[in-house]
Design goal:
This protein has 722 residues and is of the alpha/beta class. The chain has 3 domains: 313 residues, Glycoside hydrolase, family 3, N-terminal domain (TIM Barrel), CATH 3.20.20; 197 residues, Glycoside hydrolase family 3 C-terminal domain (Rossmann fold); 132 residues, Sandwich (Immunoglobulin-like). 30% of the residues lie in helices and 17% in strands. The chain is built from 22 helices and 25 strands. The strands form 7 sheets. A 6-stranded mixed β-sheet has the order 9-14-13-12-10-11, sandwiched between helices. It has a 5-stranded mixed β-sheet with strand order 16-24-23-18-19. The protein has a 3-stranded parallel β-sheet with strand order 3-5-8. The protein starts with a helix and ends with a strand.
Length: 722
């Protein structure tokens, strides 16, 4: 949470906002609650558009650094990286804003209120918007969300750099096609254990200025008008003092989709009365009628506008530019060489090596020809995901491998197949590039097959005219003829490396059994192709870990519309994963040893547990390893809905070949707590296991890693409500 002088000033900002809002008429106040707030010229207030995006770079407003998509950033398992990336994004945001103000440009996507990050839980791999999130785990999502919010909002004592927004509150993860009418039902245990932690952390730790409601209902209440979520939990329990915005045109869904209101007047009244201050859309004009009919008080509208203007005050939008250090950020900061370098670093950290029989890294002195095949090999779309900005330079995988390979290695290329259609050419027969695929394989010493998806196949409903189920995936299969060109490459007898650019898990069943190496690339950003090329040749040692479980097929999953966590994600799944959450290989080998703890392995509700361990790089390559710490409660048989294990701490350690370092990990009492059916966090009496290592403690991870995490036994003697 932001500390010091800023909190002292918050009350002064609110008082200034109250004084300004007190001069407005009811009509003026009402129209300030629209995302496109008009000017109030008689008070000297300029127009302001609240809608802006910064999911992985300043979005939709021209040139900016385009970082890896959020799910790729999550795969780095690196809080410091998320802070660095968000800090650069907010620097470019201020630089662009300052320039736009010089030319009186107040259009959409030109303000300082950014509706990012998306901290929903990626509970089902079919969800099209999952690649906007930080994955399936509440702890990982919380830590990365906090780092991102802090990086966006800055560390100045007086002003916010930009205002961040935690979205979509809450219990929101598809199906996209049903979101405007769907009721997501979940237990209190799942609500507090899975769906709320990241929002709680962003609000109470990072001080997120904004929270956005979701389209759907949660347990019967439309999220953008939910008393339970917006008043009871957010305002009263968590002490949130910022402003709440609706998702875009979500209030219209109250009567058109959810059927909980009769029309627009009582819809805006429901939202406003339950704490939704800003309407992304145009419906809030009906508040005038709602006040006239006694459905909403003017005092509540005044409160909403004060919340909004307090944010504008915190951003310094009503102060002299000389007083605000962020007003001095020049346009030369946008898309700078330093920012492109961080982008490459982020892309390299995000790559996850899922399989390697020793073929990687490639030896430039031994490889003379490389075949690069597949619809995502030379695709800019596959670099960026959605909610993206415009890069001044895109390096596709084909270009990146060519750049990394140097002039002495010949590159052969074939698109291989269309991303999802039967043929590449409209008049061509199905699989019209198959002969070329086989020809490229014949000429090549090694073949890199680049498959996957892009944001035209997985994403938000209606965002880019998704070809499949409103942006969701119908299954986990590679679309179209992609699998067939992979099989053809394998049948050639040449070594095959599979590089997948996609924002979610796909079924790699054939690849897992047949190809020589698999590199999960996500949507790796504008520099992503070069990151892939450098990694294939060993200039970068992969360090990424999976932020989601990779299943074998959709048949293993509960119904998409089932929001209960039973059978979902690594915490509750019963079957063995194809590639588990937290898994990722390196070119080097690491060992963990001398794992110890204080307190004699006893925990209470008052003291933290400190664990120390030594980690050594026993391989031949310098590398960075993630230390993952999981907690498992050995519950009595009568206790239901107990997680298999849960990630509760992370540490990153960089080691040169042969180097050894000490790592310290802290687990709080809350790390051992489990939520009950009433949403209470309970530290249960009994035995716990703490696993410290480079993966989950499940059998599949141990088999793939070739090593087990260290296990410590911990005891709690008395139950306590935390």
């Amino acid at each position: 949470m932001r500390k010091g002088k800023f909190h002292e000033l918050e009350a002064k900002y609110r008082k200034r906002a109250e004084e300004l809002v007190s001069k407005m008429t009811l009509e003026e106040k009402v129209y300030q609650t629209l995302h496109s707030a008009p000017a109030v010229e008689r008070l000297g207030i300029p127009a302001y558009n609240w809608w802006n995006e910064a999911l992985h770079g300043v979005g939709r407003a021209g040139v900016a650094t385009v970082f890896p998509q959020a799910i790729g950033l999550a795969a780095a398992f690196d809080e410091e990286l998320l802070y660095e990336v968000a800090d650069v994004i907010s620097t470019e945001a201020r630089a662009k804003f300052n320039m736009q103000q010089d030319f009186d440009d107040k259009d959409i996507y030109k303000g300082l209120t950014f509706w990012s990050p998306n901290v929903n839980i990626f509970r089902d791999p079919r969800w099209g918007r999952g690649h906007e999130t930080y994955g399936e785990d509440p702890y990982l999502t919380s830590r990365l969300g906090v780092a991102f919010v802090e990086g966006l909002q800055g560390n100045d004592d007086t002003y916010l750099k930009v205002a961040a927004c935690a979205k979509h509150f809450a219990v929101h993860s598809g199906p996209e096609g049903l979101r405007h009418s769907f009721n997501a039902e979940c237990s209190k245990q799942d609500l507090y254990e899975t769906y709320l932690p990241a929002f709680h952390a962003c609000v109470t730790e990072a001080g997120a200025e904004t929270v956005m409601g979701a389209y759907n209902r949660t347990n019967g209440e439309p999220c953008c008008g939910s008393k339970t979520l917006l008043k009871d939990i957010l305002r009263e329990d968590w002490g949130f003092t910022g402003h709440v915005t609706s998702d875009c045109w979500a209030l219209r869904d109250f009567y058109e989709g959810h059927k909980v209101t009769e029309g627009p007047v009582d819809s805006v009244a429901l939202a406003m009365n339950n704490g939704c201050d800003l309407n992304c859309g145009n419906l809030n004009g009906y508040l005038l009628k709602a006040v006239e009919e006694g459905l909403v008080s003017e005092d509540r509208i005044t409160e909403a506008v004060v919340n909004l203007y307090t944010t504008r005050m915190k951003l310094g939008l009503f102060d002299e530019e000389e007083a605000n250090p962020y007003s001095k950020i020049g346009y030369d900061q946008v898309d700078s060489a330093e920012h492109r370098q961080l982008n490459l670093k982020a892309a390299e950290k995000s790559l996850v090596l899922l399989k390697n029989d020793g073929i990687l890294p490639l030896d430039r002195s031994k490889v003379k020809t490389i075949g690069i095949i597949g619809p995502n090999a030379d695709s800019r779309m596959a670099l960026v995901g959605n909610y993206e900005g415009t890069s001044s330079e895109y390096i596709t995988v084909l270009e990146g491998i060519r750049k990394a390979a140097g002039e002495d290695i010949r590159i052969f290329y074939s698109e291989g197949c269309h991303l999802f259609r039967p043929s590449v050419q409209g008049l061509g027969a199905p699989q019209d590039r198959m002969a070329e695929v086989k020809g490229v394989c014949r000429e090549s010493d090694v073949v890199v097959v680049c498959l996957g998806l892009d944001a035209t196949l997985e994403g938000e409903q209606g965002d880019t005219g998704n070809e499949f189920a409103s942006g969701d995936k119908p299954n986990l299969n590679f679309p179209g003829n992609q699998e067939s060109i992979l099989e053809a490459a394998y049948a050639s007898g040449k070594p095959v490396i599979l590089a997948v650019l996609a924002g979610s898990a796909l079924a790699y069943t054939f690849a897992a059994d047949h190809v020589n190496a698999i590199l999960q690339c996500w949507y790796p950003g504008a520099q992503g192709g070069y990151a892939v090329g450098r990694t294939l040749f060993g200039d970068n040692n992969p360090q990424g870990k999976l932020p989601v479980t990779f299943y074998r097929s959709t048949e293993e999953l509960p119904e998409f519309t089932d929001y209960g966590m039973e059978g979902r994600t690594y915490r509750y799944m019963k079957q063995e994963a194809l590639y588990p959450f937290g898994f990722g290989l390196s070119y080097s080998n690491f060992e963990i040893f001398d794992v110890q703890y204080n307190n004699d392995g006893l925990i209470t509700g008052d003291d933290s547990l400190t664990i120390t361990a030594r980690v050594k790089n026993t391989g031949n390559y310098d590398g960075i390893q993630t230390i993952e710490t999981y907690v498992r409660y050995h519950a009595p048989e009568s206790m239901e809905h107990v997680p298999n294990c849960q990630l509760k701490a992370l540490a990153k350690v960089g080691l040169k070949a042969g180097e050894e370092k000490k790592v310290t990990i802290t687990l709080t009492p809350e790390s051992f707590g489990l939520y009950d059916e009433d949403g209470r966090l309970i530290l249960h009496a009994g035995e716990y296991s703490v696993f410290v290592g480079f993966s989950q403690p499940d059998g599949r991870s141990i088999s793939l890693m070739g090593q087990s995490p260290a296990e410590l036994s911990v005891t709690c003697k008395a139950e306590k409500v935390l």
